[in-house]
Amino acid sequence: MINRRIVDDYVRTVEQFAFLPGALDALVSLARRAPKIVVVTNQQGVGRGLMRTADVDAVNAAMTDAVVAAGGRIDAVLVCPHLAGTCRCRKPLPGLALRWLEQHPEVDGSRSVMVGDSETDVGMGLALARHTGGCATVRIGARSPSPTTSFPSLAEYAASLD
Q: Hey, how many other C-beta atoms are within 10 angstroms of the C-beta on 21?
C-alpha cells in the first residue's frame, strides 16, 4: 500500500524500497488531516534471519525521511520482526497498535482509522475496533466485497477525504 513489494522476498535495503504510485503524495495529504500517522508492519524476514533489524530500521528511516522531505510526516513505525504464530504483536493481532495507544493517551483509538492492503491489516483493524470501541478500517486494493470501506489505492483514499 505504501511501497512496492518484492514477490517471494522482502525489501531488505533502502535501494530496494520504492513508493507505490501516488503513495507519497497520499501520505503528505493524510498528514494534513490526521493528528498522528503510525505505520504498523510485519517483518518476519528478520525472524527468518534473512535481514537484520538494522536493515528494516534503515528502510523505515529512508521512507520517513522521504515523506518529511515531501511535506508530510510519519509519527511512528511499529515493527513486528517475529515469525508468524510466535508473538502477540504480529498483525492481525492488535498488540503493537494497542501498546502504542497506551503510550499515547492523547490519541482516541475509537476515532482512529486503520488503512491497509492485506487480510492481516483488516483483521488488525477489526480487532482494534473491538478493543477501542470504534476504530474504522479501510481496505486498499480490495477486489471483492469486504466488511470495510475499500479503495483501489492509498492515493484514492486520501483524495476521498478532500
A: 12
Residues 6+ apart with CB under 8 A from 17: 3, 4, 11, 59, 62, 63
CATH architecture of 14-156: 3-Layer(aba) Sandwich (3.40)
Q: Which residues pair with 138 in a beta bridge?
A: 115, 149
What are the structural domain ranges in the chain? 14-156
pTM as predicted: 0.93
The 10s digit of each residue's pLDDT in 11-53 is: 999 999 999 999 999 999 999 999 999 999 999 999 999 999 9
Q: Give the chain as a DSSP string.
A: --B---TTS---SGGG--BPTTHHHHHHHHHHH-S--EEEEE-HHHHTTSS-HHHHHHHHHHHHHHHHHTT----EEEEE-SPTTS-SSSTTS-HHHHHHHHH-TTS-GGG-EEEESSHHHHHHHHHHHHHHT--EEEEES--S--SSEEESSHHHHHHHT-
